Amino acid sequence: MERPGQIICVGRNYLEHAKELGNEVPAQPLLFLKPPSCVIASGVAIELPSDAGRVDFEGEVGIVIGATLRKATEAQCAAGVRGIVAANDVSSRDWQKGDGQWARAKGSDTFLPLGDVSTAPFDLGALTVVTRHNGVERQRASTAEMAFPIPMLLAYISKYITLSPGDLVLTGTPAGVQPIVPGDVVEVEIVGHSIVTSPVVAGPA
Ligand code: ZN
Questions:
Q1: What is the whole-number distance in angstroms between the Cα of residue 177 and the centre of ligand 1?
Q2: Is 187's pLDDT higher than 90?
Q3: In the Cβ-directed half-sphere of 162, how many Cα atoms lie within 13 Å?
Q4: Mean predicted confidence (pLDDT) in 126-154
Q5: Fewer CB near the last or first residue (10 Å), C or N of the chain?
Q6: Taking the model in full, what pTM does it have?
Q7: What's the confidence (pLDDT) of residue 168?
Q8: Ligand 1 center to 20 CA (angstroms)
Q9: Average pLDDT over residues 87-113
């Protein structure tokens, strides 16, 4: 896809994933940002910084915004979705824990592989995300399992941050995240909509 405008992400939106990292699902959506500079296309390699420690894949449903949404209702938000995109929210767990802010943990170059945007008809409450790691299925979940459904997330975000056409919202990852190392291949698919495949290499020293 073209480089997104803002990239707003949601953490801990699936109970089983929150548990696997020893966290609770928060009372309200947990928001963070990724910089547009970390986006790469399908087929481009994820580069692991030499000092990043444990880096995980996170298969996620990406929502491409098609309208201006400011303090919008859930219905306005649902109608303002332009498309669906497969996304991999690559994350350094060591930096996430150590830095406090997640800018480099989640925002380093190549840390957001994105597929092509699908504008085929979709049901925001019944999208299936699947992640394959070296050909082995590691994540499979429906957006029906989210703690905060997509229209609720978008309405919550729009209370504080105006969403504009071309902005991207990452909606959280389900259980099954795994560390990646050079030589791996990670594939995230939104079934029937979008797919992104990424080889993994060691980053430049
Ligand atoms: Zn994530």
A1: 10
A2: yes
A3: 5
A4: 97
A5: C
A6: 0.96
A7: 98
A8: 13
A9: 96
Instruction: Using the mean position of ligand 1's atoms as its centre, give its distance from the Cα of residue 157 in Å.
Output: 16
CA of 190 relative to ligand 1 center, distance in Å: 15
Question: In the CATH hierarchy, which top-level class contains the domain 7-202?
Answer: alpha beta
For residue range 102-114, what is the model confidence (pLDDT) as tens digits? 999 999 999 999 9
Q: What is the pLDDT of residue 25?
A: 80
Distance 17 CA to ligand 1 centre (A): 10
The encoded tokens of residue 161 equal 């941050």
* Residue spans per domain, the chain: 7-202
66: nearest Cα among 111, 118, 18: 118
Q: How far apart are CA 25 and CA 12, in angstroms?
A: 6
Would you state the structure tokens that stand for residue 140, as one six-digit string? 């499979």
- The burial of 5, by beta-carbon neighbours within 10 Å (0-12 exposed, 13-18 middle, 19 or more buried), is given as middle
Residue 1: the pLDDT is 60
